[in-house]
Amino acid sequence: MIGKAAYLMMNQSIEIPLNKAKITLFLVGAVAFVFTGVFFAIEPAIFISPILRSEELIRIAGVAAVLFFGLGAVYMLRKLFDKKVGLTISEEGIIDNSSAVSVGLIEWQDITGVETLEIASNKILLVHTNNPEKYMERATNMFSRKAIQANHRMYGTPLSITANSLQIKYKELERLVCEELENRKVL
Predict the structure, then answer these.
(1) SS3 assignment, position 165
(2) Which residue in 38, 85, 115, 128 has a CA-CA distance of 20 to 30 Å to 155?
(3) At residue 18, what are phi and psi to the nearest 5 degrees?
(4) Do residues 166 and 18 lie in contact, with contact meaning Cβ atoms separated by under 8 Å?
(5) pTM
(6) H or E, element range at 163
C-alpha cells in the first residue's frame, strides 16, 4: 500500500499515476482473448463440446470476443503510452483519466456522496452527483455514453472510479476521496 506522502503533491493536489504494469497485463489478456476469438470464428468445429454444441454459436462468440477484446486491447495500448496522470484529487474536484468512461473533472460541489460497489470481487467507487446530466453529456464517444447511461440506470450515478489501472489500492483510493469529500463539506 502506498502512503499519501508517496503521491506526487503539487499545489495541494494528490496525483495518482497510471499503473503501466497492470495495463500491460490487461493488454496481454485482451490480446489472448482476441486470438482465442479468432480460432472460435475460423474453426468452430474444433470447439464443439457437450456445453457448446452449435458451430454457429461458437463462431458468433468468437466474433464477439474479437470485437470486444480487440477494442479493449486498442484502449489499453493507448493507455500504456498515455502521459496524463491517472487520477488527480485537487481543490476543484476529482480529475479522472483512469478508464474508458472517465469524464474529466468531477467538481466537489456536484458530489453528494460516494459508495463502494463490489462486482465479482472488483471494487468500484460510485460517485453520486446532484447533476448527472452534466457528466453524461461529457461522454466522448457512443461507447462511453452508453456505458455511463447504463451506470446511471443501474446504480443511480453515471460516475464510477476503479483502482484497476492506477498505482493505488482500492481501500487507499476510497479513503483519500472520502477524506477530501469530508474536508469540502466542512469548508
Answers:
(1) coil
(2) 85
(3) -70, 145
(4) yes
(5) 0.80
(6) none
Separation of alpha carbons 121 and 132, rounded Å: 26
Residue in 159, 163, 175 with CA at minimum distance from that of residue 87? 163
| pLDDT tens for the chain, residues 1 to 187 | 444 434 444 457 899 999 999 999 999 999 999 999 999 999 999 999 988 889 999 999 999 999 999 999 999 999 999 999 999 999 999 999 998 888 989 999 999 999 999 999 899 999 999 999 999 998 888 888 899 999 999 999 999 999 999 999 999 999 999 999 988 876 5
Work out the angle between the directed axes of helices 20-42 and 55-80 (0-180°, nearest 10): 160
Residue 149 burial (CB < 10 Å; 0-12/13-18/19+)? Answer: middle
